[in-house]
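Shipment paperwork, digital attachment
Item: protein structure file
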Amino acid sequence: MAKYRNTSVERGFRILELLAERRQAVDVTTVAAESGLPFSTTYRFLSVLVDLGYVQKTENELYWLGYRLFKLSGYANEITLVKHAAHQILSLLAHDVGLTVHMGALEGLQVIYHAKFESENSMRIVSGVGMRLDAHVSALGKVLLSHLSDAEINRLYRLNPLRKHTQRSITTLASLKNELREVRARKVAYDNEEIAPGLRCVAVPVYDHENELVCAISISGSTMHLTNDGVPGLEKKLQLAAGEIADTLAGSRGRRHGDGNSTRTAAQ
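Attachment content:
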């Protein structure tokens, strides 16, 4: 794919990034010096950005990020971007495995579902976008909790007992921390009938192109469909999907797997 350059756009973004990095209002001379642009060019770009609302100018001739930029960032918050990037990938995955696929993020002691995908043949699971579950009994939740330190886990659960959902639920902090250590090592988490009898789940983390955790994705189904022999194959499909989401977020879908494999290809 051909790469196109636009120096005006690049210079505008360079100025915005510089203002963001400074974390305080600065004068045009400072912006020019740090951006490497001529004073007149810097002043012209700042004036345009002020007119557009992406930069604000103070009474004493200093410049800072404008309200419109913050408003724009609010529209494109991280989870919205991830949902958009993951939609087709996870829809194809659910269709391929014939099971339910969820995407979730951690909020305090709970995991919240941000997306759900079902196939025509998947077991009907009582869940939906916006639903919250205790993280300690959820495969999604365990993946997300595993990225916290033991000190952070202690703070989270110091005054909050681990609620028992089934006979298999983790109910002690020591047991939870032991399991989270295993999840950190293998980068896969399981829910073995810990939320509801007969329901199993496997989950993996999703990272962005800078290797920062953004969410977790999972496959859920009955114990009849998620067998011990079948789980490793589902793990691999989840990991491929997580890689594709990361590539899509980076604008390079398809480059992660040198042979051109995608979730659709790998699933066949």
